[in-house]
Design goal:
The structure is a single chain. By secondary structure, the chain is an all-alpha fold. It has a domain of about 140 residues: Serine Threonine Protein Phosphatase 5, Tetratricopeptide repeat. The protein has 26 helices and no strands. Helix 14 packs antiparallel against helix 15 and helix 16 packs antiparallel against helix 17. The longest helix is centred in the C-terminal third of the chain and has 71 residues.
């Protein structure tokens, strides 16, 4: 948190005979206390000086001593770390600065509170504090501090997955920084925007923004900022699958972090180097880098990182066919994942254990671990879908509220205009016509009420139909994804059992029976019947129009048309129909022929136009 000191104050009172401290002496204590908090090195010493400042306040009522004592105490607890205590003391500092009409300290304290609340995942409260600080800084025309606050607020919105709001705040911060030629905050804003783009999987945009930030940091000599940007850029290259480019960034960072004694930075680099080495087939190198990173993680109680690197080491040993060592590291990762309550790590570890058991010939254990992998994957999928549904529902409710507000505002404006018209009419109409006007006004009011009632009833009916359609569409997508996921999992298990049977090259009646069972299960059409029923409810005329206009379409071709109508990609269609990607392409080609489409006509656009007035998906 950026801290402001009282510098250049005019001393109002001399030191009196009985030992009262001057403002200068108080500021020296303040300065010493904050210096103990640089990088959070000695919070206990800072807190002891804060106690002395509180004693000074009790003795002579020094505002400087009290406000700094409250902030220093909060900051010391922040670094201890005791986040709840930090929040308590900064809230006291905010109340005290507000009571003394000190806008500068009020703005500073609000930013500190926003940072603490953000770390506690109380994102809305944090943004409210940042907004309060922004309002004060704008009133003071303090552009320097505005850049810093907007970056903090943008980071909070990004953590809350409010990417559009985060990008707006970063753009404002970048504009201020560019105007001030503040290259450090300019680069920070670019870095923030790049991270948002990476979270949204816009990897090329993220790469361009990181490179732009690195150029600024290199030009301004910001070595540590440049290393952070390079580390983020390496993560982008890793997400792109460019593992050689990603790996090449890490060794210089390791050297710098080692020289500076930044162990956690070395650990992070080692983990990512091991991951890249595994992808590049450099398994011995991955093991050496992984063990170095794992040692640092254990010494610093970094459970999540220790779990990741243990799993990577296990995968490297597996590739080298050193199965005992692979099992030791995989079991260590399993224990860490369980203690860390991380579903993603548990899923990755279950898959690794399944592969190790399979390599050892323990196919029963391999299948059990694979089932655990599939179950955890299912759980993560359902959780993500639930979150998406909740997000969509929140957006729908927001849009609905906005429409209601707009309707009320329009009604209010209409009433205001009507009243104004009536007033003018009363002024200019003679007394003899008053009865006629009054009667006409009542008639119009009754007609308006009737009209509004009809509109309201139609709107409610429309909303009801829309809700029913949205429910059916969600149900349809859910069934489609369930079929695709089930087919994908069954196909995967079937391939693995077939591979096992081929490798053993012996009669294995039990495995043959499992394969036949899987084949039988994949031919079952219950799910397709449910899917077709739900699809027809939301698209009642689709199959009828196809069958009437294009005779001879097979059941599978009609299914393919329905999946294209849902805007599903080839991969999802392949999973749904339990065929390969090439099979999808061939099926699409045969369908084009039956639909008599020209070369320049799009199959997807043609299917989407069928009976578009009757329904939508």
């Amino acid at each position: 948190m950026k801290l402001k000191y009282y510098l250049g104050l005019i001393l109002l009172f001399p030191i009196v005979a009985f030992g009262q401290l001057s403002d200068k002496q108080i500021l020296q204590k303040v300065d010493s206390a904050w210096s103990y908090l640089d990088y959070g090195l000695e919070p206990e010493k800072a807190r002891a000086l804060a106690d002395e400042l509180n004693a000074i306040y009790e003795k002579n009522g020094s505002y400087i001593a009290r406000i700094n004592a409250l902030q220093i105490t909060g900051e010391s607890y922040y670094y201890s770390p005791h986040i709840d205590s930090a929040l308590y003391w900064y809230e006291k500092a905010k109340v005290f600065s507000k009571a003394n009409d000190d806008l500068n300290e009020l703005a500073h304290t609000a930013v500190s509170l926003g940072s603490i609340l953000s770390e506690m995942s109380r994102y809305e409260e944090a943004c409210a504090e940042f907004d309060e600080s922004i309002k004060i800084r704008e009133s003071l025309n303090d552009t320097d501090n505005l850049v810093f606050i907007y970056i903090k607020k943008a980071w909070t919105n990004n953590m809350a997955d409010k990417h559009d709001l985060a990008m707006e705040d970063y753009l404002i911060a970048e504009g201020y920084a560019r105007e001030l030629n503040d290259t450090m905050d300019w680069a920070n804003a670019l870095n923030g925007m790049a991270i948002v783009q990476k979270k949204q999987n816009n990897l090329e945009k993220a790469e361009a923004l990181f490179l732009q930030a690195i150029d600024l940091q290199e030009a301004s000599g910001d070595i540590f900022g440049k290393t952070a940007s390079e580390g983020n850029l390496a993560m982008v290259y890793k997400s792109m699958g460019q593992y050689e480019r990603a790996y090449s960034i890490y060794p210089p960072l390791v050297d710098l972090y080692t020289e500076e004694g930044f162990d956690l930075g070395v650990m992070s680099c080692c983990i990512n180097m091991a991951i890249c080495s595994n992808f590049l087939g450099e398994y011995r190198r991955a093991i050496n880098e992984g063990k170095k990173g794992e040692s640092i993680a254990v010494n610093n109680s970094q459970v999540e990182s220790a779990c990741d690197i243990s799993n990577e080491i296990a995968k490297a040993y597996l590739q080298l066919n050193i199965l005992d060592s692979a099992m030791i590291w995989a079991e260590k990762a399993a224990l860490l994942a369980e203690n860390n309550f991380s579903l993603e790590k548990e899923m990755a570890n279950a898959l690794t254990l399944s592969e190790i058991h399979s390599a050892q010939g323990n196919h029963r254990l391999a299948l059990e671990e694979y089932k655990r992998y599939a179950a955890v994957k299912d759980s993560i999928f359902e959780s993500e879908k639930s979150k998406q549904v909740l997000d969509l529902q929140a957006k729908y409710e927001t849009a609905k509220s906005e429409r209601q507000i707009a309707i009320l505002e329009a009604d209010a404006q209409l009433k205001e205009q009507t009243q104004f018209t009536l007033l003018l009419g009363l002024i200019f109409v003679s007394l003899g016509a008053f009865a006629i006007i009054n009667r006409e006004t009542k008639r119009r009011k009754k007609a308006q009420e009737l009209h509004e009632s009809e509109i309201k009833r139609a709107r409610l009916e429309q909303e009801k139909l829309q809700n029913e359609l949205e429910f059916k569409n969600r149900e349809l997508v859910s069934k489609a994804l369930h079929i695709a996921q089930k087919n994908e999992m069954l196909h995967e298990i079937q391939e693995r059992l077939q591979q096992h049977q081929n490798e053993r090259k012996s009669d294995n009646t039990e495995v043959d029976q499992v394969i036949r069972t899987l084949n039988f299960d994949q031919k079952m059409s219950d799910h397709w019947d449910q899917f077709t029923q739900t699809f027809t409810e939301t698209n009642p005329s689709f199959f009828r129009v196809l069958n009437e206009q294009y005779e001879g379409l097979t059941k599978n071709e009609l299914r393919l048309c329905a999946l294209i109508k849902m805007n599903l990609g080839n991969k999802d269609i392949a999973n749904m129909l339990n065929i390969s990607d090439d099979g999808v392409k061939k099926a699409r080609y045969r369908l084009r022929k039956k639909l008599d489409l020209q070369t320049n006509e799009s199959l997807d656009e043609f299917i989407l136009r069928i009976d578009s007035r009757a329904f939508s998906v």
